[in-house]
Amino acid sequence: MNRPIIAITIGDVAGIGPEVVARAMRAPAISQACRPFVIGDHRVLQQASKDLLRTDALKFEKINDAAKTRAGMAQQCDTLAQRHAVACYNPMGDIAPVAERRCVSSEAGEGSFRYLNAAIEMAKAGTVDAIATAPLNKAALHAAGHRYPGHTEILAERCDVADFAMMLHLSESGIAGLRDLVGARRERSLHGLSVAHVTLHTSIASVPSLLTTVGIAEKVSLMDRFLVNIGCERRAIAVCALNPHAGEDSLFGDEERRIIEPAVRGFENQEVSVSGPLPVDTLIRRAVAGEFDGVIAMYHDQGHIPIKLIGFDAAVNITLGLPIVRTSPTHGTGFDRAWDPNTPADPAGMIAAILTAARLCR
Question: Domain 5-161+322-360, what fold?
């Protein structure tokens, strides 16, 4: 495949999405790895470039109608790139530019929803090869009348899949320094560290009732498939316990015995290497040391906290189980520092997400 076309949504215009997208577009690695195609209002991006990056060196040019074929989209992107410009498609109209910055609004929520849906339709049609999404705000999404917990659930519904997972992935380059600190053994070729989640955006109190043996097994299978796709031969997967000390023989809870252990045992006669349930306080260190390639977390913070601690800027969110490739940075909308030239937003996560999308669709 020649350079893939990556559709990049700008997310919630009140947050740091437009800024990190604008900054990412200036990174030489992006144009070398892919053809970027931005979905969002070009005026918002131009404002971010002028007020926050304080440059007009890179232009965002509006295209009135997105190409219907991949070849046509590639031609549009290449033509604009020759003029040091990025193609920008706006399915929202004139509402997003007037949305108030740094706060929740229905206008910004509606914009982020439409940008995402346009990207999904293009990816499903094969017009673009993958999508990378800047962060949206859940409260703004709800204010606009869209009752979804986040990107992942919208993607799953639009792609008509029931078996999906949110996964945070740290490439080997993103974790290599920490591996050295914990004395990682290098006998095998390592492929970074990936953490998928059984439950997503829900309360801690609801997690035990949402866990099922079938659901955990599905996430293990999705993780194994991902590890195959990135060329990981060992594919060692660890499954987290829910309770401290893995329940301590049901003294601290019996979810391990009733729900998690049966899911792990179900892979005994398959070519999938699965261990668990393991106490999380030691599991993550073992994974960083190179013992495991993938980890299955039972709930959101169980997986997010360690990955964001050890690789916040380098980690990439990848949605497993979709018929399309979708990535995003792991940070949020950052209303507390958005649209402030004195607190520039770091584009490292957005750059990593775009580059990861380009690698995955190859």
Answer: Isopropylmalate Dehydrogenase (3.40.718)
Count of other CB atoms within 10 angstroms of residue 183? 8
Domains 5-161+322-360 and 165-308 in one fold: yes
104-122 b/e (C-beta count within 10 Å ≥ 16 → b):
bbbbbbbbbbbbbbbbbeb
Per DSSP, the three-state class of 113 is: helix
pLDDT tens-digit profile, the chain (362 residues): 589 999 999 999 999 999 999 999 999 999 999 999 999 999 999 999 999 998 877 899 998 777 789 999 999 999 999 999 999 999 988 877 789 999 999 999 999 999 999 999 999 999 999 999 999 999 999 999 999 999 999 999 999 999 999 999 998 888 888 888 887 776 667 889 999 999 998 999 999 999 999 999 999 999 999 999 999 999 999 999 999 999 899 999 999 999 999 999 999 988 889 999 999 999 999 999 999 999 999 999 999 999 999 887 789 999 999 999 999 999 999 999 999 999 999 999 999 999 999 999 87
**Fold exhibited by the domain 165-308:** Isopropylmalate Dehydrogenase (3.40.718)
Do residues 296 and 273 lie in contact, with contact meaning Cβ atoms separated by under 8 Å? no
| Count, residues in the chain | 362
